Amino acid sequence: MELKGIDHRLTVCKVTEVSQINMDADFYFIGKTDEELSLVCKTEDTPPNTAARDDGWRGFRIQGVLDFSLIGILSKLSGILAEHGIGIFAVSTYNTDYILVKEENYARALTVLASEGYTVG
User: Fold this and answer.
1) Residue 7 belongs to what domain range?
2) What does the pLDDT look like over 88-109, one tens digit per residue?
3) CB of 6 within 8 A of CB of 103?
4) Total number of domains constituting the chain
5) Mean pLDDT of 16-27
């Protein structure tokens, strides 16, 4: 399975309203529930007045379109990283999964996954 690194630094944050989010940015994830409005975005695109913010994330995605019938892909990746003491923040889209790790663990995460047979690009 091929993993593709994301070139930019990311921020995970909470915002109080959607109008704070730059919908013209080229990379972001929004999650809204009855309890919160979360945003993952390039650090430089982070809204100025966040309710909470955690900088210093890097990420990679599973290349290609994943069929919904596939089971355990994210579990396998997160398990490998957990065995090496690397925490994750996962985000899924319709097509694939994205895994974020803290910047200080990024190179090690890719090395560990490559040693487990994943192609890292």
Assistant:
1) 2-120
2) 999 998 888 899 999 999 999 9
3) no
4) 1
5) 94
